[in-house]
Amino acid sequence: MSDHESTYVPKTAIERWMDTRLPIIRFGMDYANLPTPRNLNYWWTFGGILALCLMTQIITGVVLAMHYTPNTALAFESVERIMRDVNGGWLIRYVHANGASMFFIAVYLHMLRGLYYGSYKAPREMIWIVGCLIFFLMIATAFLGYVLPWGQMSFWGAEVITNLIGAIPVVGEPILIWLRGGPAIDNATLNRFFSLHYLLPFVIAGCVVLHLWALHAAGQNNPVGILIPKDRQKKDMLPFHPYFTVKDGFAIILFLILFAVFVFYQPNALGHADNYIPANPLQTPAHIVPEWYMLPFYAILRAIPDKFGGVVAMFAAIGVLFVLPWLDTSKVRSMRYRPTMKTFFIIFLFVCFGLGWCGAQLPDAPVIGSFKTFTLIDGDLNSYLWLTRFLTAYYFIFFLVLMPIIGLREKPLPIPATISEPVLSGDAEQKG
């Protein structure tokens, strides 16, 4: 698909003038006419959904910034004023708050699709790496935004997470002081977080352009996971518009229905009740937890008994995704034809859900009621802490051990020669 030639022909004098100076119209038309594998399923619609989520967050965020006051004495009241006194403020705030959760739902499904179908393999490594960078920036942006309402969970979440940075040897303390604007979380901290939270979505938008650029150069993957030869492109590919724009549009409508259910009927279901209490540095909440989409990484952080080791493990859980194209040694992309790896992938999904669940629990709470088993030095073997450690171990084993070894030893199923041909027993061509 990287060899796709432009078919756009400027028809008016203005188009010709623009085309010789800033060919943005050509770029848009070429993307609409981009040859796309005809067998893409609905898992490929999350790219369009994510674009919609990003635009929604930027637009609502800009409007909220017009009314928000980044001051520790006024921030909580300014959010409440938005909800009560600004015309449509309640709707804008709920769309923005729930939009973050919708954004992460879509991005997790998008990444899991890429993981299952091997969309990170050559020649699409840069697509995956830029996507992981977007994911990291999303986490940073979401954390910064979580602090801005200046409720109890906002303040103490910022206290816990920023303290982790101080655990980094040598450079941790200076970075912590710079980020907070002083030795403690105060007005300077809120101003910094507000500025960065406003800036980072535009950085994400720039990375999305790079993501699309890399996609345009390397081409789309497909559920079969085979490269489409030039002589098959007319049979195995269709223009992106109108075939896949219609498909994306239908998926977006369904996604918006889910989005609307939360905004209008359960606007606070994905948040924390303590964040409706003004921040109080003298009163620590009974249980400090981040938003649900950060819970798996928070669980990994708590799984390590050493503070600095926990920080390393948490960032390594994200960092391992960046090197994934070189960890998977299999020549077959799609796990549809890798039964052994598919089994471990399904286990990996349950592990991710388990980490999220453990991240929301008290680490020393018993897993099975008050049942007590024999104890170790660190506490009860039946606690969430030990379950979290087991799940954390599998998370890293999946990427660092299983992927390289199974990729070398697994015997994949026969793969069809083209995406439009069925798999025939005995004569299907093995391709990566």
How would you describe this structure to a colleague?
The chain crosses the membrane at residues 42-69, 90-111, 126-148, 160-179, 199-219, 240-265, 308-327, 343-363, 383-406. InterPro entries: Cyt_b/b6_C (IPR005798), Cyt_b/b6_C_sf (IPR036150), Cyt_b/b6_N (IPR005797), Cytb/b6-like_sf (IPR027387), Cytochrome_b (IPR030689), Cytochrome_b_C_euk/bac (IPR048260), Cytochrome_b_N_euk/bac (IPR048259), Di-haem_cyt_TM (IPR016174). It is a multi-pass membrane protein. The protein has 432 residues and is mostly helical. It has two domains: 34-290, Up-down Bundle (Cytochrome Bc1 Complex, Chain C); 294-328 and 339-411, no CATH class. Helix content is 60%, strand content 2%. It has 16 helices and four strands. The strands form two sheets. The protein has a two-stranded antiparallel ribbon with strand order 1-2. Strands 3-4 form a two-stranded antiparallel sheet. A hairpin with a 2-residue loop joins β3 and β4 (379-380). α3 (46-65) runs antiparallel to α9 (187-218) and α6 (125-147) crosses α7 (152-165).
